[in-house]
Amino acid sequence: MLGWALMFLLVADDAGILGFGVAAAVSTNIAQVLFFIFLIAFVVSLIVHLARGRTPPM
User: Of 18, 27, 29, 30, which cross-links 12 as Cys (Cβ 3.0–4.6 Å)?
Assistant: First the structure.
């Protein structure tokens, strides 16, 4: 997910440099949404991992 966000950010940078303002804005918004989804998933995963603690050895 983070890789997709970085890819869209690079597309937005390239579009902005080349003068495609609408494409840059759309790519930036997609990258921002994907980054926040990644961040929320990471925090939830971290909380679940910490709540489980250590598992007993088999």
Answer: 27
Q: What CA–CA distances, in Å, run from 44 to 1, 8, 37, 38, 56?
A: 15, 24, 11, 10, 23
Listed in sequence order, the residues at least 6 apart from 31 whose beta carbon sits closer than 8 Å to its beta carbon are: 5, 6, 8, 9, 12
- Which 3 state secondary structure label does DSSP give 57? coil
Kindly report the pTM of this predicted structure.
0.72
Sign, CA dihedral 13-14-19-22, equals negative
